[in-house]
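Re: that backbone. Tokens:
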């Protein structure tokens, strides 16, 4: 085991770090909004501490405004709520009907979804028409996302990535949440001849297909699918669109299809964790009515994927302090000795760490631990808290008011060379990303609720 898991740490022990996070975040969220030129697109990552855009897909705007909403949740500062709500209403509409991306859960649950959740929890004043607006956005978004569908072998299928109908990204396990909420709201996707297509069915089949082709279990599917590497993930699974057959693993942002890009791993960890929480609340009849395997079988397969990926993170990806490097097969790691036995080194000369992968993974670990409960879940929950403790302090938490980011040492696209390498350094370091900042705040909300004994936050309606 590479990570050093503190079995004594509690969520309450991190309250000071969470309070500091939200104090810092408020000023940075407002400052970025005031200074950002919307004509440049959406802020994506920082260069020398200032947010910049990167034209690829507009997948980070919901994180920007979601940070304001979470800032209100963490502090009660109503000006942050008004900022997040106003920008959601004024600027997020195109994301609801965007037919070209797999990112609906990222953009629209971070905004419309969080606002709806806070109103249901009584933290925002009840307003019937405002709630109807949020719910209509979620319904439309879920259906548009579900329409992006490829049939796969063996009765499988998936929501395909922006690369096209042949491409299944592991990332999408976190975005399919939008289908779950839309389903709970009674929505369906209407197809040809008024065919009603279940959003739950598409969501679950996508998850089962991802678990089968993007997650490895040490069962010899290829030369690198060995027992000691159980839980590794491929960023992308490629399919023959003509007959739906799987062809090969691949990587867009990782080093290769046979190594593990750690942010993709983290998306799987938290994605399966949250889906387990959601699916466990549904009645058996909802599975049978959608033509799915029985509820018990689905939960078993999802739990297998969740535990395998979380175990891989603990054993193969996270360094001693819980922070991971950007890819477990990155070639420069071979020059760093026993790098997993010591704390991650963001200022090394060989390979960058990725704090954004680490913060997403931390939430996945905590949620898997909460789902399993008892002794079975303790390892995961404690590991998640250990990662969080590292990230809520320097050198990861940005204390510099001149730096626009919150979470330092995030990596976006190492193969494309998009990440800033500071003068005098050999690898990217010291920069932030919009998804890293958002997920640090989301993790902060989760820890705050656990520490205070508050309502456990979920993307779905528990009743």
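Recovered sequence:
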């Amino acid at each position: 085991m590479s990570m050093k898991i503190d079995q004594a740490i509690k969520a309450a022990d991190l309250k000071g770090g969470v309070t500091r996070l939200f104090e810092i975040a408020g000023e940075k969220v407002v400052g970025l909004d005031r200074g950002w030129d919307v004509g440049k697109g959406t802020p994506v990552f920082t260069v020398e501490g200032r947010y910049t855009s990167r034209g690829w897909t507009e997948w980070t705007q919901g994180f920007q405004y979601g940070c304001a909403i979470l800032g209100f949740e963490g502090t009660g500062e109503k000006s942050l709520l008004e900022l997040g709500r106003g920008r959601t209403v004024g600027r997020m509409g195109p994301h609801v009907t965007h037919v070209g991306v797999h990112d609906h859960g990222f953009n629209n649950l971070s905004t419309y979804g969080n606002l709806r959740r806070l109103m249901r929890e009584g933290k925002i004043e009840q307003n019937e028409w405002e709630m109807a607006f949020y719910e209509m956005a979620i319904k439309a978004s879920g259906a548009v996302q579900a329409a992006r569908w490829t049939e796969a072998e063996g009765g499988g299928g998936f929501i395909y990535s922006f690369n096209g109908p042949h491409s299944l990204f592991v990332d999408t396990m976190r975005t399919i949440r939008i289908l779950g909420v839309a389903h709970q709201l009674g929505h369906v996707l209407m197809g040809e001849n008024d065919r009603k297509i279940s959003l739950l069915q598409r969501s679950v089949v996508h998850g089962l297909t991802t678990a089968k082709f993007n997650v490895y279990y040490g069962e010899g599917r290829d030369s690198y699918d060995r027992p000691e590497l159980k839980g590794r993930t491929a960023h992308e699974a490629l399919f023959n669109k003509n007959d739906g057959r799987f062809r090969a693993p691949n990587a867009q942002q990782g080093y290769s299809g046979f190594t593990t890009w750690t942010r993709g791993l983290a998306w799987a960890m938290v994605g399966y964790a949250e889906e387990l929480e959601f699916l466990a609340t549904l009645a058996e009849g909802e599975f049978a009515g959608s033509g799915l395997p029985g509820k018990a079988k689905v939960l078993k397969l999802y739990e297998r994927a969740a535990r395998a990926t979380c175990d891989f993170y603990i054993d193969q990806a996270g360094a001693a302090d819980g922070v991971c490097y950007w890819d477990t097969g990155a070639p420069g790691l071979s020059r760093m000795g026993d790098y997993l036995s010591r704390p991650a080194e963001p200022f090394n000369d060989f390979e960058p760490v990725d704090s954004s992968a680490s913060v997403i993974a931390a939430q996945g670990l905590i949620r898997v631990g909460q789902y399993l409960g008892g002794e079975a879940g303790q390892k995961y929950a404690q590991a998640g808290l250990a990662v969080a403790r590292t990230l809520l302090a320097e050198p990861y938490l940005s204390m510099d008011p001149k730096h626009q980011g919150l979470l330092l040492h995030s990596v976006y696209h190492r193969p494309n060379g998009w990440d800033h390498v500071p003068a005098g350094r050999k690898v990217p370091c010291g920069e932030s990303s919009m998804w890293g900042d958002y997920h640090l705040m989301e993790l902060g909300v989760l820890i705050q609720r656990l520490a205070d004994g508050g309502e456990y936050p979920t993307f779905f309606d528990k009743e």
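The chain has a mean pLDDT of 97. The CA atoms of residues 237 and 368 lie 24 Å apart.
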